[in-house]
Amino acid sequence: MAFLKKDQQDRAYYAFKEGLRIDPENSELWFQTGIVLAKQERHRDAIKMYRNALKYDPDNLNAQLRLGMSMHEVGMYKEAIPVLSHLIERESENEQAWMYRGACHLALGKFREALSDFETAIDWGSEQTEVWVLKGYCHVQIGEFQEALDAYSFAVEINPDDPVAFFGLANALVHLDERDQAIEELRKAVKIDPEYADAWRMLADLFADSGEIAQASNAYEQVLKLEPWDLDTRYSYSILKAELSDDKAAVTDILNQIINEGQESVTFYNNHGLTLMHLKKYESALQAFNRALQLGPDNPSVWHNHGAALYKLKWLKDAMKSFQHSLKLNPKNVNAWIGIGMVATAQYEFSRAAAAYTHATELCPRKVNVWIMLGDTQTERSMFQDAVAAYEKALELEPDNPTAWNQRGLALRLMDSHPAALESFEHAGETKNARPESWINHAITSFELGEYDQSVNSFERACKFGPIPVDSWLIYLNALAYEHENMKVIKGAERFIELFGPDAEVLFLLGVAQYELKQYEAALHHFRETIKLDKDHNDSLFWAGLTLLELFQFPEAITCFEQVEDNHPDDYQAWYYHGKALVSRGELQKAEFILKHSIQIYDQSYEAWYLLADVQSSRKAYSDALQSIGKALELVPSSNSALILKATIQVALGSFRGACQTYALISEPDASDPAVLIGYARALYHTGSFREAYARVTRLLVNDEKNPDLWHLRAEIERAQGLFDEAAHALTQACKYAPNNKKLQSLQGIVLYEAGKYPEAISVLEKVLEVDSQNGELWKRKGAAHEALLQYELASAAYLKASEFLHDDPDLIRRLGVSLYRSGKCDLSIQKLDQYLEVVPDDPDIWEMKGRALYNMGEYLLASNALSQAALYHPDDTNLLFRYTQSLVKSGELLSAIPTLDQILERDPDNADAWKLKAEIEQALGRSDEAAHAVEEALRQIPDDPGLMLARVKTLYESDNYPESLDMVRRVIDKAPDNSEAWSLYAELLWMTADHNAAAAAYERILAHDDTNARAWFLKGDSLQNAGRFEEAAIAHERAFSLGGDPSVGLMLSKKMRYLQQRKT
Known about the structure:
Elements: H1 2-5, H2 9-22, H3 27-39, H4 43-56, H5 61-73, H6 77-90, H7 95-107, H8 111-123, H9 129-141, H10 145-158, H11 163-175, H12 179-192, H13 197-209, H14 213-226, H15 231-244, H16 248-258, H17 264-278, H18 282-295, H19 300-312, H20 316-329, H21 334-346, H22 350-363, H23 368-380, H24 384-397, H25 402-414, H26 418-430, H27 436-449, H28 452-463, H29 470-482, H30 486-500, H31 504-516, H32 520-533, H33 538-550, H34 554-567, H35 572-584, H36 588-601, H37 606-618, H38 622-635, H39 640-653, H40 656-663, H41 680-686, H42 690-703, H43 708-720, H44 724-737, H45 742-754, H46 758-771, H47 776-788, H48 792-803, H49 810-822, H50 826-839, H51 844-856, H52 860-873, H53 878-890, H54 894-907, H55 912-924, H56 928-941, H57 946-958, H58 962-975, H59 980-992, H60 996-1009, H61 1014-1026, H62 1030-1042, H63 1049-1064
């Protein structure tokens, strides 16, 4: 934190990073790291930090706010909105959250939503100039100029030194036609910021519009000083001079600055022609270009401009020649290629136009309009995929181009990609410069998809822009009809007739609307009026028949339907309603014939199948009726009427089980029919009503105890309730009555496992696997049963078999790795554990197991790496940390082991094993004092441990404390009489303290086990010599010299002499 306050961001970042290494779940550290990165404008990295902060502390509202702010800074507006919305839900008074969410909405063009957020931010006390400026900008975008003026005025009041606020204020005043006041505000803006180019540019435009030429020129000059590359401003400046100044030389100079200056006279006439083109004086412009070509016939730009003037005058052949001549002089003249494309399009030579536009895009791929023109040309050529690609290229360059979106939608619709076309039209309609055509196209596309409600909405949105064409009216009325907006249809049809006169289609739609409103007499009148205008209007004949049915005029209705059938024999609906009319007249045999003919034409009509079944049932043809109602239910499975009719037919046929199954599907109130309850038990189970279902099944089993399906159902109910023992018993019964049903046996094995009956489960699964040996799930379940019984060898074998059939199953890979490890196959287990960790890298238990396996194999460095990963997830597990430390020590990383060991001892100062290990490390590092301290601490916990006592001997010996070390080593030998290292130290201490005979005896014991120990021979000889046993001494020394001696003896003699001298004094 100190680094952060001093603005030492890099140091702060690394400090926080180190903190996170120690405490990776510290939300505040993640948050502060994000703050540092955001200050360094590394917002994408900051986003990751804030997300981690929220991961470990979802209530960190500051992190939530900063996450949203950083997302806004990198343009992730859509992603930022839900983040800030979540914060607002938690802390509604956070004005920063409201302001930044509003800024995101604004960036996405959602000005109303943005405005609402800015106003809420202000309500919660935000006093930043920025929020008022943004609020003003939103008002301008939605045409609320007075509100924009108020917002910008408040921004200026808050901060009178903000040039952007003054610029926005001026913009609002311009929209309110307060130009003089706007000029004053712009003067304030450029006074505060003399390098504010946009303010100078608006000021220049206002001066020019008001006729103040000198001031306008000065303002344009200021823009050009700041942005000399701005050709539009230069061009505006030259036009101003051309129209309002008599200084032709000055005009020529300015024009020559716009274009790289060529020969003076050619440039003058060329630019003069461009000026005239800008003023739409095409014939005069053509004369200027002709003069330029007389002076410089090899200038490709002049030839292009010459062609452009000819094109505007519609002299297409001459224009083509000029563009071609331009390309002859400069094949890379993009505008000339565009000109050729435009001329070719005007001449309907679309292939030639496409080739030209393609050349243009290759030369200048960032021209948006060229891509659009190429797309239009490809559409004309019916190459719709290429057209869409061209429009999408335009949209990559200009995402809000309404023309590109609209034309893309048309091409997609022509490709029958209607959903994608709708999205394209929606984009076009929501852009700033949207036109009604986009919404009309959206409406037509929705209509073609059958999305009539959306079609209506789109037409109504288009109407807001102005009147819609006649053909669009017809589609609009049809959409309303499909949506059953009958009152709107009536009003719309009447309005259409008022504007355009009677129309057969409109009268027909008017009649349909009245029919649906049950205004049958009026509807019949309009259908007959339609037929008067169009005698072959079959739809009106059909609907007239429907209306006559409702009026119970059955013979007249049948006549209408027969006329439709004569005109359109394949109109299945006419045949259906013909049959319905016959049923109403009681002519059932004839009705059955007519209905079958309807179904023969179209067999997907639910109504026809249902009516046919009803007729056949009435005529007691039950088998045929059952087939017919079955077809109806295939089309509408949830129809209660059809289900009841089917059940009635099944009862008549004696198919009671089928009737029960049918009744079980019937919903209330029909479901309470007594016949339904027979088959209701299974339905209850599937709806989760286990208790009642169990009771029903039990009652059924009283009468049918050998039914394996009922036992199976009972087992499923019990299993769903967690009654695994009972379920296993039920499945045993089921298998008893269906001994060859392997599916039941498989389920039995699984349920036995779930019941904890592992041996029984294994026995059943083995029987099934004899027949179904490739069932990986059953092998896996068998392995789990063996694992539960601690039979790891068998478990690993089963898991290995399962892996042959279940590929990429992380749980199986984990289980196989664990069972291999526990069966002692460390090398094999590591392969599976690694495979599992590739998929699930955050499983600390598997990292620890991998570390143990590697340790057991002697791969200590790899083991330490694995255990360190496990420790990241369980930093407080001292046992894990100790194993990690052991692996470091074994791999020779002694210094690296000490910090972790100290961490363990800090948490558990009585950990004798840790003190013992620390003593070993310190001894190995030659740090005797630290080693001695560690040994003392360890001995305090386990004072009789021979290893610790021996370590204590070593430290005492190295510190020249020979008497105490001699006493301690005797205690070690008492407890571990065969410890050779203890005997070696004991002999040296006896020799060092001049106990000659005892030392000689000790060395005699050592040499009995190792006759090649030169050092022991020498020291034995020295002890014998000092004891006066010279012959024995001579033999010992000869043996030592024959073995090459020991160079360390000299240093030992020196230490001994010093010790004996000190003891003597």
